Amino acid sequence: MHYLAEEKNQLLGELYVLRALAYYDLTRFWGDVPFFTEDLGTDELAVLPRTPMSTIRSQMKTDLALAKSLLPSAYSAAGDKGRMTKWAASALKAKFHLFDKEWSETLAECVDIINNSPHKLMDDFADVYGYDKTTLDNEIKEEHILWVDFAGATALGTNIINTNGNLNGGNLQSNLWIEEFNPRLKDNPKAKGDKNALNAALAANGQSMTGYGAGIACPDISKRGNWDAGDLRYDVTIMEYYEGIQLKFPYVGKLMNLNNDKPRNSKSENIVLIRLADIYLMAAESENELNGPNNAYQYVNKVRERAFEPDMPWTGMTQTNFRLAMMDERKFELFAEGHRKQDLIRWGTLIETVQNTKVTRHAQGAAGNIQTKHLKYPIPLNEIQTNPVLLDSDPTNNGYR
Fold first, then answer.
1. How far is CA 57 from each of CA 62, 89, 336, rounded to the nearest angstrom?
2. pLDDT score at 82
3. How far apart are the C-alpha atoms of 334 and 178, rounded to whole Å?
């Protein structure tokens, strides 16, 4: 009976985290949304109003604290990899606190993870993902805390995550995003005369460029001069050359897998939602907001240790300068991992950043089009038709009507 009680508690803990993960995205993207914790019938759901975001988030923090107490620190069985741990619950709880600017609570969760969890920073930034070097046995890294496990699944992986950091519209069967980060051979190389050399290099490495080529880095981040001199993360993050052959565009290299053993539309890499470096940066940001930078350096500099050789630690900053520098540090460390837009929203800088960022040609209209209403999404029309009550608390539908 004791074993059954433990198993029940573990399952409850996992379910609490999964529900909180759903409301984490729902509240960030739509704000106030319908909220329920019990099974409801169709008739009840059809008249369920939107609940204030603050009420939902408060309940999710309570649930995650309970989940943390119910879940194990780690799993030993190979078949249990990818299941929620107490540290996944803690990391997600820290994210809720971060978005609500509850700095003390954010810091407490982050420090607990840093000091007491089995998670460690990878020694080499290239190994944080390194999908071209991973197998089903080693794809999960000790830096990964919360991820969606697609190991072994066909056509369901890394590139299904979109730029907002949520799962691609909930449609996990869509192949549209699977090859977003991988280049297309027909676009490359930059010089037509290098085509045969590129083909030969790919063949020699057992690789191919059969992606959709959509993962092109915008000029502001793809220029090496916009990074700190000597930042080792640049060559991992941005791929301008393949075996010394210049490509037509600067691609996002760190999330690629060009290996032929995983052909087009058959990528199954895990989606990493929260990793330990993010936790260190959250701790640094929270400590700075609470007390200034003196005790915050230890967290950000731990992340920067592997980014520079020799080290380039931060020191001697004002609280304001630290805050501004952290906005860039998160961009460089976590680029293309689904955090940037929501970071800009919580900092209140999304609109000005979009207006002032040099982007790729196909995104030229963003600077002129972005408005305050774009901080949230509208409730979809089909949801409103099913449940008109959704408009009672906000007839403007987040400003879109």
1. 9, 14, 26
2. 83
3. 20
Which residue stretches of the chain have pLDDT < 50? 154-178
The ranges assigned to domains in the chain are 158-269
Nearest to 57 by CA among 90, 23, 87: 23
Instruction: Find, among 166, 372, 379, the residue nearest to 273 by Cα.
Output: 166
Torsion sign, CA atoms 333, 336, 337, 342: positive
Q: pTM of the prediction?
A: 0.92
Query: Cα separations (Å) of 368 from 68, 349, 401?
Result: 44, 15, 20
CA dist list (Å): 292 to 7, 283, 315, 317: 44, 12, 12, 9
- List beta partners, residue 215: none
Task: Give the per-residue pLDDT at 136.
Answer: 72
Q: What's the CA gap between 80 and 28, in Å, rounded?
A: 29
Q: 340: which 2 tokens?
A: 């940037």
SS3 77: coil
Cis peptide bond upstream of 189, omega within 30: yes
Please give the pLDDT value at position 2.
59
Amino acid in position 174? S
Distance of alpha carbon 364 from alpha carbon 168, whole angstroms: 23
The answer to whether 216 and 353 have CB atoms below 8 angstroms apart is: no
Sole residue written with tokens 């978005």: 99
Report the length, in residues, of the chain.
Answer: 401
3-class DSSP assignment, residue 31:
coil
How many Cβ atoms from other residues are within 10 Å of residue 75's Cβ? 15
